[in-house]
Amino acid sequence: MLENPKRYTITAALPYTNGPIHIGHLAGVYVPSDIYARYLRLQGKDVAFICGSDEHGVAISMKAKKEGITPQQVIDKYDGIIRKSFEDFGISFDNYSRTSAEIHHKTASEFFRKLYDNGDFIEETTEQLYDAKADQFLADRFVTGTCPKCDNPEAYGDQCEKCGSTLNATDLINPKSTITGETPILKSTKHWFLPLNRYESFLKEWVLEGHKNDWKPNVYGQVKSWVDGGLEPRAVTRDLDWGIDVPVEGAEGKKLYVWFDAPIGYISSTKEWAAREGKDWEPYWKDADTKLVHFIGKDNIVFHCIIFPAMLKAEGSYILPDNVPANEFLNLEGNKLSTSKNWAVWLHEYLQDFPEKQDALRYALTANAPETKDNDFTWKDFQARNNNELAAIFGNFINRVVVLTNKYYNGIVPVPNEFSEVDEQTLAELKAYPAVISSSIERYRFREALGELMNVARLGNKYLADEEPWKMVKENPARVQTQMYVALQIASALAVLSEPFLPFTAKKLSNILKIDALGWNDVTTKTDLLPAGHQIGQAEILFAQIEDAEIQKQLDKLEATKTANKVENAKAEPQKDIITFEDFAKVDLRIGTIIEAEKMPKANKLLVLKVDTGIDVRTIVSGIAEHFTPEEVIGKRVTVLVNLAPRALRGVESEGMLLLTNNAEGKLVFVNPDAEGVINGAMIS
């Protein structure tokens, strides 16, 4: 670990511009990185917090093909949505760029060219998967097949999202083209490879020995597994029509592999920022006194801890990351977040339903952050954390302090009198909290740090509850002056210490208390954060209660998504064997009406029905009791197979069969093509 760095370069994973941002992105990467950057700024550190849209690669091409638009239209649309989401949630990037920008194309091309000129690449003609029908080579994401490591039948050509393994498209078993559905063939093509095997000893020394004690176990373990398994050359070019041209002769029609060009986006974004601010960009990437930290999700560990460092090492003039605190994944209501299945909470939609509640979501995601294992976001937990923690602990304390100060002193901070032992102990404990919270943040334990912040609010609540100034104000007003002074110092500390975690709340609280320009260390070093005689404002609600109806609306939305996915993914059963017209002519189908219905005794699935078939009234026993009550079916018009041989069921002779099918949710419905959820190809039985 770098002690006392002169400056910090903080990068957050570049989001793909093939869709909006959801809570998994926020929890895994952007809230933790923003907490870290805001905390460092409050300490007066020199910080460059860098990000940008990742606008190349197959994901963009796939989205464009699916929507029938150009890749440029795709990236322009989602870059705008993503930028606004980050702004709305207070993600305080110093620069947010785009990999389609000219400065990035130039930076990535120059980086490639330097490695090429130094002889760091291997040029090879290899066999790659080719879709003959589409007449094109298939980039990784245009191929799906069975993962050779976990047998997942829907693995992509670059990664299995089930087991997390990084793959090559040619590794897949039974590969299929996602463009045409055809089985691809192997065809020769020339590419350039970065020989990762040359960097094994460097990676062992730098990561496995150098960062054994300070990198997160999940990151260290994944790197160790890769290095121990033996590294192989990895292609840094692709046969694509969208991306950065490979800047060498004989590379026509080829682009830089997105995982070569994307991390260089951190460098080009820093250049863009430095040019705008009149700074020199190089110290932020090339000075040994700079601390470089990459914030990513666990699916990007290999690229940020093996491939990009190997690229930087090959180039020779760049520093390496001091840490890569990758998080695990966040699930939603027990299921994996999925952009393609719309199983997500999209940030732009969240603010439509919960306006001005950015901090409630930031809080819930940090309190439940997937720092060491996959965690689950539930709407009930979100509601409980807002109501029982933010509102009941933090908001309650601030409200009491501000209301009582206005009630007793017209909003003027009172002059304290002699401090009791409790007062001195409380103020001493308050002064210790910045160091406690700092320790957690600097070890990338943001969930732990947030818990300590809430302990500051708990300290304030306990102090007021124990001291009870509202009971003492008439008999000992001098003592109450001291009590309220102490409580106001705690409130002021919360305005500072909450800023990295709850920036909108911190700003609102600072406005209420009418304070500004306080730094992190002032909470420890200043004797009075709010001096006597200072005028504060009126109380405002910091955290409104979230009602059950609001949460139910979100649960209903997810349930509708689940149903829609079932309908979309429902597949018709294969056609049965061919029959002749004579076979079909034997079947006698009639329209009937159910006139009586009752449950079969001691049988959970059976209803005993009386059905008027138009030719008679007959008894039919049907296995529909788990889907319908007797009352629901009386009066129903139904299709009846009347010439089915009678059959005794639990002593009752059944003379026919009702025709039903299943909807997308698996519920039985009487045969009716217009019934909700009945798909084309639904089998009648």
From TrEMBL:
Gene3D superfamilies: HUPs (3.40.50.620), Isoleucyl-tRNA Synthetase, Domain 1 (1.10.730.10), Methionyl-tRNA synthetase, Zn-domain (2.20.28.20), Nucleic acid-binding proteins (2.40.50.140). Pfam families: Anticodon_3, tRNA-synt_1g, tRNA_bind. Zn(2+) binds at residues 147, 150, 160, 163. The keyword Zinc-finger does not apply. GO terms for molecular function: methionine-tRNA ligase activity. A motif ('KMSKS' region) lies at residues 336-340. Binds 1 zinc ion per subunit. Signal peptide: none annotated. ATP binds at residue 339. Belongs to the class-I aminoacyl-tRNA synthetase family. MetG type 1 subfamily. Homodimer. HAMAP family: Met_tRNA_synth_type1 (MF_00098). Is required not only for elongation of protein synthesis but also for the initiation of all mRNA translation through initiator tRNA(fMet) aminoacylation. This is Methionine--tRNA ligase. The gene is metG.
